[in-house]
């Protein structure tokens, strides 16, 4: 499996890759990709770690599972490939940006443009079997991504963590809020958003205000 991952992340995660749980996880993933259709494509599993360096990462958005429909997932949480119809959660993300920052809804749901600016678009589970949501959960991915969150919290300062929905909010315990900004709100899925738990959170303007305060370049959402 020819995965792409930036050298700066390889250096930081090298120890993690040597752990027994991770070796078992990779064996499981290889077997799944051999025997079943899985997403994202093998070379995009670690895309979140390839677009921006460890040093340049200044925002973390946490998702749960990759999209499991054909041609959607590209290794970045909430993101889809160019030309793919926007999933409902992504529509609500763009609607919030439109109301928060007065930016028009973009033509593409491909969020590589965010990733290239230092936004780590991290799913808690990095792979999934086609059309079977949650099929690769509890196989080791969560241990890996929890350790990534701890690594960023421990080794960096002034990172914004956006935790949307109950699952993501539980990860706040891994983050030192004395040196990072943690923003929490409901999930952008229609179920949550239509109950009033998503719209009006202003996470995108709050993030940029914090980054500017800390002397960092704001994100062009």
UniProtKB/TrEMBL annotation:
<feature type="domain" description="Uracil-DNA glycosylase-like">
    <location>
        <begin position="49"/>
        <end position="211"/>
    </location>
</feature>
<keyword id="KW-0963">Cytoplasm</keyword>
<comment type="similarity">
    <text>Belongs to the uracil-DNA glycosylase (UDG) superfamily. UNG family.</text>
</comment>
<dbReference type="GO" id="GO:0004844">
    <property type="term" value="F:uracil DNA N-glycosylase activity"/>
</dbReference>
<feature type="active site" description="Proton acceptor">
    <location>
        <position position="65"/>
    </location>
</feature>
<dbReference type="InterPro" id="IPR005122">
    <property type="entry name" value="Uracil-DNA_glycosylase-like"/>
</dbReference>
<protein>
    <recommendedName>
        <fullName>Uracil-DNA glycosylase</fullName>
        <ecNumber>3.2.2.27</ecNumber>
    </recommendedName>
</protein>
<dbReference type="InterPro" id="IPR002043">
    <property type="entry name" value="UDG_fam1"/>
</dbReference>
<keyword id="KW-0227">DNA damage</keyword>
<dbReference type="InterPro" id="IPR036895">
    <property type="entry name" value="Uracil-DNA_glycosylase-like_sf"/>
</dbReference>
<dbReference type="Pfam" id="PF03167">
    <property type="entry name" value="UDG"/>
</dbReference>
<comment type="function">
    <text>Excises uracil residues from the DNA which can arise as a result of misincorporation of dUMP residues by DNA polymerase or due to deamination of cytosine.</text>
</comment>
<keyword id="KW-0378">Hydrolase</keyword>
<keyword id="KW-0234">DNA repair</keyword>
<dbReference type="GO" id="GO:0005737">
    <property type="term" value="C:cytoplasm"/>
</dbReference>
<dbReference type="GO" id="GO:0097510">
    <property type="term" value="P:base-excision repair, AP site formation via deaminated base removal"/>
</dbReference>
<dbReference type="InterPro" id="IPR018085">
    <property type="entry name" value="Ura-DNA_Glyclase_AS"/>
</dbReference>
